[in-house]
Design a protein that fits this description.
Chloramphenicol Acetyltransferase, alpha+beta, 21% strand, 6-stranded mixed β-sheet, 476 residues
């Protein structure tokens, strides 16, 4: 298919950007992973300015939004700038009129399921926008962005979307976000004695070897058993899914955090893991003996927060933050103690926190990155993509989170009530994403249709949260 190559407003293309190895993995013959981002509006949507917004604000953020992935004569892949017809990327579906909110919920959920199973066409830039003008239980209207993971990871893509928005009460001011940077502890390694540093170094080396070896085995041979949260079927990434969301109070989560002296991420991950265990055991009593593993994804950038549109467009250093810069950890789900459920709840969270903290302090994630690069160099990106596909498929679930703005935001002066995202076309039966917005935490759950009961799973997650909150109060 012939395409006219243009840059921005008609300037000739002189050179193209090479496609990064990770982007090639995510857009290969075995993987085609995308991110769905949903913006929920307080008022009915006025889409009259949508074309201008995308042309003037969204497209300039990064050249990849105006590019397609092409292959040269030597097999190398590049981002090739093309002329973008914005109207070809926007869809406004028609639902029946005059239905109840519950009926529109069903139509909306079914529509989401359909667009998640469809692959983005390779003949035009890898994104699309769906404008849903019908009300649901959560919003008066919704805008759904579907963005291919080859364009960037969740931090890049959500950062791009958020940079298009403004404060609802004062559009002239930028959105503010919680600080990403970690506080520096006084008892740093410089101040520690030699006798305390040496055991830690030895422990770190042992953990690195064990974690790296286990990760390689999980990606190659060791496959989680079939369970209420894992079908293990071939092509599970192409099967229909249900996307369910739930909202939690950040103030209550912070109370649990202070009670247990852990991080917010530890509380949320513990809640997800505990709720998953509850669901498994309530669905199948034999599941209490299973040993599912989760892939927990985390951002590897050393930065203080998202970048604005101007920084994304003008600042070369900000552009370097774009792309896929993340790592994943294989984390086993702790088991429940049936005899002391309240005490076990706190122990469950602390055990989850200890495992993740130990694995983050291990150098295994860097060794895995080196391994993937070696496979790519000697066997090519397609073989590496197959390795990553097995890594995802052999585990039971994926968990990832992003930080949202502290105050209410608006798009073209239309207030946004809520937002969430979901990673789709992943060869897993269960994916959980978390995003904060104002004083709330939104948890979205993507479940394989016909295997996992989304309503029951949501109830189990909420039950886990209540157990944790009550246990933290009792422990005080």
């Amino acid at each position: 298919m012939a395409l006219r190559v243009k840059v921005g407003r008609g300037e000739a293309l002189e050179r193209s950007e090479p496609v990064s190895p990770t982007a090639q993995y995510f857009n290969s013959s075995v993987l085609s992973i995308s991110v769905i981002a949903v913006l929920e509006f307080e008022n009915p949507i006025n889409d009259s300015s949508s074309l201008a917004l995308i042309n003037d604000v969204f497209l300039p953020i990064n050249p990849r939004f105006s590019s397609i992935m092409v292959e040269d004569e030597e097999g190398g892949k590049h981002w090739k700038r093309v002329e973008v017809k914005v109207e070809d990327h926007i869809t406004v579906p028609n639902f029946p009129k005059g239905l109840s909110l519950k009926s529109y919920d069903n139509y909306f959920n079914e529509y989401l399921s359909i667009i998640t199973t469809e692959r983005l066409p390779q003949t035009k830039p890898l994104w699309e926008v769906h404008i849903i003008k019908y009300p649901t239980s959560n919003a008066s209207g919704s805008v759904v962005f579907k963005l291919h993971h080859a364009l960037g990871d969740g931090f890049s893509l959500m950062g791009a979307l958020l940079s298009c928005l403004q404060k609802a009460d004062n559009p002239s001011l930028p959105l503010t976000f919680p600080n990403f940077q970690k506080s520096i502890k006084v008892d740093s390694a410089i101040n520690k004695s030699f006798m305390s540093v040496v055991p830690q170094a030895l422990s770190g080396a042992i953990n690195t070897v064990l974690d790296f070896g286990w990760s390689v085995l999980k990606s190659s041979f060791l496959e989680d058993n079939q369970s209420p949260i894992r079908s293990g079927k071939e092509g599970v990434e192409f099967r229909p899914i249900n996307i369910t969301t739930m909202t939690f109070s950040l103030d209550q989560i912070k109370k649990i955090k202070c009670s247990l002296q852990v991080t917010i991420n530890d509380v949320v991950t513990g809640m997800i893991f505990l709720g998953t265990r509850l669901y498994m055991e309530e669905t199948n009593d034999e599941a209490k003996n299973s040993n599912p593993t989760a892939l927990v994804l985390f951002n590897t950038r050393s930065i203080g927060g998202y970048k604005s549109v101007d920084e994304m467009v003008q600042n070369q250093e900000a552009q370097k933050l774009w792309g896929n810069q993340f790592a994943f950890l294989h984390v086993p789900l702790p088991k429940l103690n049936q005899h002391e459920p309240s005490l076990n709840t706190l122990k469950f969270v602390q055990e989850t926190q200890n495992v993740i903290k130990r694995k983050k302090n291990s150098a295994a994630v860097y060794l895995i990155g080196t391994l993937l690069e070696s496979v790519r160099k000697y066997k090519g990106p397609e073989t590496t993509a197959k390795y990553i596909h097995r890594t995802l498929k052999n585990s039971s679930m994926g968990v990832t989170n992003l930080i949202g703005p502290l105050e209410k935001m608006a798009l073209a002066n239309q207030p946004i009530k809520g937002l969430y995202f979901m990673v789709v076309n992943v060869p897993q039966s269960l994916t959980v994403t978390i995003m904060s917005y104002m004083d709330q935490l939104r948890v979205a759950v993507g479940t394989e249709r016909g295997l996992i009961d989304p309503d029951k799973f949501r109830i189990c997650i909420k039950k886990a949260f209540n157990m944790m909150f009550n246990a933290s109060i009792e422990s005080k």
